Amino acid sequence: MKTSAKTSAKTSAKTAAKSTGATHTRQRWEPWNDPNQRPHVEISRVTKRFGDFVAVDDISLNIYQREFFSLLGPSGCGKTTLLRMLAGFEMPSQGQILLEGEDMSGVPPYQRPVNMMFQSYALFPHMNVEKNIAFGLRQDGVPKPEIERRVAEVIEMVQLNAFARRKPHQLSGGQRQRVALARSLVKKPKMLLLDEPLGALDKNLRTQTQFELMNIQEETGITFVIVTHDQEEAMTVSSRIAVMDHGKIVQVSTPAELYEYPNSRYVAEFIGEVNTLEGRVAAREGDHLLVQSQEAGCTIKTGPSADEPAGRQVWIALRPEKVQIALEPPPDTTTNCLSGEVWDIGYLGNLSIYHVKLDSGKMVTATQANRTRLIERPITWEDRVYLTWPPDAAVVLLS
Amino acid sequence: MKQGASWFNIASLVVGFLFLYLPIALLVIYSFNESRLVTVWAGFSTKWYGEMWNNEGLMNSAWVTLKVAVVASTFATFLGTLAGLIMARFGGFRGRTLFSGMIYAPLVMPEVITGLSLLLMFVAISLDRGFVTVTIAHITFSMCYVAVVVQSRLVSFDRSIEEAAMDLGCPPGRTFLQITLPVIAPAVVAGWLLSFTLSLDDLVIASFTTGPGATTLPMKIYSQVRLGVTPEINAVCTILVGLVAAGVLVASLVTRRQELRREMEERAAQAAP
């Protein structure tokens, strides 16, 4: 199977940033920004309580046809409960779920046009691969020749031809995962739910399988909803990601938007590495805010930002790779310039990671791509260094 | 520490095995005794095995015992499986402790009491004692064993495969028959075998609940032994011991081989890319 993602309208949407202002010749696939699109699944004000515990707290969410949608969050944030409500294994305590406009409340799992791939794969141990895959079609009374044809088709798609007659215990973890995927795809569901589908695979296999999943999703055109706690996985496969925390959705965005424009420290810290500097709004300068930060020891001129009252406490998010590190001070050291001492260096070959201790005691991380061979006088421990960044790199967070 | 066979280890092994198996060995040996007197050895012979077949009373009661055991263990398996299912699945319903207590109670209830109370009930509802009453009594006391075996298997059962079946369009009832039952089948079969053997060798409860024409083998043996042990009885018992030993041996060999094969297949699958 090909491991490279196809360049399609969808993948370009994945990599497109929000407001770079660049003109795109290719049409972007963003149904969530199109008011004429009807959502495929409409989750409206859904709450799920288990006794006193609120697992899912008043969530509203629209998922569109052909999306590869991720629910991302730490364990216990309610993402799996939400997925199980979509599958019909749990019923919402409040609110409703609409699939293609139809209310799903009270519809049991075996009557929903939705299939799920389980974290444990949940293969039937007493049936071979073929029988496992054919099970769903047999339940619907599909005629035998058609069952055989469709089973052969998906077996081909997940490349299990050689293993069709084996029992689950005769398969490796990766093969089991593909049987589970084939079994949930063979009924051509309107929506496929995947609960940590790659959690049990080792890292190499996982990366490869991520791309396979994307290919299969594009080939079949089925809406995928995936639950994961692995932000890298979510970033790779998703058209959009919902970051969840304590039963609530914190932010729903495309991977690029989520990384570049997180709406809170929680999201910024969950997705990739980030430096956060605490400060207070001092003034406004055109589109930008000027933030006075004790921790930073300078004034920070932020990227384009909404107006905030002077004196409001804010946090500035700075991605390590957007920070320039230098031994020479820049011309203006009072704005967008941190100075400190190199505390630690991690050399990864392609990247170097610098941990810099600011004069306020705050540790800041900067990563530099090693584009040339090591220079004659590299930055080393205990050097006094200056960190600078373009104003666009500084994102204002209010919480 | 010294591994292997010290004289002490060997001695304790021998004493232990003698303690367990000497009586049975004596029984087997005397079943091949020529003499009519059980305790006097008069040369090797298999004539008592022949006599045994011609002893109509003995054969009748063997046949009754077999019928009772098959019918009782089948019903007990059905009811016990349901009870095990309820205990494993229906979490915290009202009266759960009472229910499970009532399921487990017959395990520790003295047989005399079980037998007596069943007898009183059969008399109260004026049910004629015989084959039916013995069978009912055996169902009563052996279903709790099945329930325990099935429940312990269900506790380690991955429920997501049931959810997967339902997710693929299989209603709950059919899911039980097509998915749950085949997976817990070994426990159900084990439960059936357990209640079969329990029914086979029950003496106390059968004596309380039986009636004319439904004398089970243990009862027959017991009543004959009171008149004096005959080599015929020894022969019957030897056959019983042989059957049980063969059954246990075959069952353990088969499961062991299956386990080995499964292990090898699993290892082979993991090694493959």
Describe the structure.
The complex is a heterodimer of chains A (399) and B (273). Chain A is an alpha+beta fold and 399 residues long. Chain A contains 9 helices and 20 strands. Chain A has 2 domains: 28-265, Rossmann fold, CATH 3.40.50.300; 273-397, Nucleic acid-binding proteins (OB fold (Dihydrolipoamide Acetyltransferase, E2P), Beta Barrel). Chain B has helices at residues 7-31, 47-54, 56-89, 96-108, 111-124, 131-155, 160-167, 172-201, 204-209, 217-226, 231-271. Chain B has 2 domains: 14-45 and 233-273; 55-228, MetI-like (MetI-like fold, Orthogonal Bundle), CATH 1.10.3720.10. Chains A and B meet through β6, α3 and α5 of A and α7, α8 and α11 of B.
Features:
heterodimer, A: 399 residues, alpha+beta, Rossmann fold, OB fold (Dihydrolipoamide Acetyltransferase, E2P), six-stranded mixed sheet, five-stranded antiparallel sheet, 20 strands, disordered N terminus, B: 273 residues, MetI-like fold, 2 domains
Could you state the CATH homologous superfamily of the largest domain in chain B?
Answer: MetI-like
- Sheet of most strands of chain B: none
**CATH architecture classification of the largest domain in chain B:** Orthogonal Bundle
Summed over residues and divided by their number, the pLDDT of chain B gives a mean of 85
Broad CATH class of the largest domain in chain A? Alpha Beta
Low-pLDDT segments, ≥5 res of chain A:
1-25
Which topology of the largest domain in chain B does CATH recognise? MetI-like fold
